[in-house]
Amino acid sequence: MRGLRLIPFLLLFGALSWAQALYLGAGAGAVWERRAPVAPHKEWFHSDRPATSFFLALPVEEGTLFRVEKLDLPRDVSWQGMAWEARLSGWTAGVDYFLPGVWGQALVGAGVGAYRLDLAAKTPPEGVEDTRFGWYVKVGEWFTLTRRLQFAAEVSYHRTNHAGQPQLLTASGALVFKL
Length: 179
Known about the structure:
This is Outer membrane protein beta-barrel domain-containing protein. By secondary structure, this protein is mainly beta. Helix content is 10%, strand content 64%. The protein contains one helix and nine strands, in the order H-E-E-E-E-E-E-E-E-E. The chain has one helix spanning 2-19; strands at residues 23-34, 44-46, 51-61, 64-79, 82-100, 105-119, 131-144, 149-160, 167-178. The longest helix has 18 residues, at 2-19. The protein is elongated, with a radius of gyration of 18 Å. It starts with a helix and ends with a strand.
């Protein structure tokens, strides 16, 4: 059983020796939900809680990264006429492409993932919390600060298969470390 735990580390070590670089990033930002059930009168509802993300990316080839990201997107849901604070906690995998940018490197990316809806309640109602498939697209720009440190400014659009087909737009900033 302990041998099975070593497999992810060996795969990561092998990928690092092949790629010769690894990008680690952490960021936060704001979230807007299109036609949120808790604010039906607004086209875009802004959440007052921040979104967070952490990612690991490996270069596939020049100008292309494979990114695995853990993110938490705040979302309020309506259940039986009541508003509940919640979050979409997702694991995504995607590909980022870099292009010449205005001040840095422009980024275009897309991917898929599993998004879990978690309610901020001690005893949430049955059948509300679940994990569903989703996808995202993003654009942004990465700015070089030092040889190993970059700042990433990104705008992402996430869509999941939860009830109501939520559509979330995030604007975030992140620090990216190149190892």
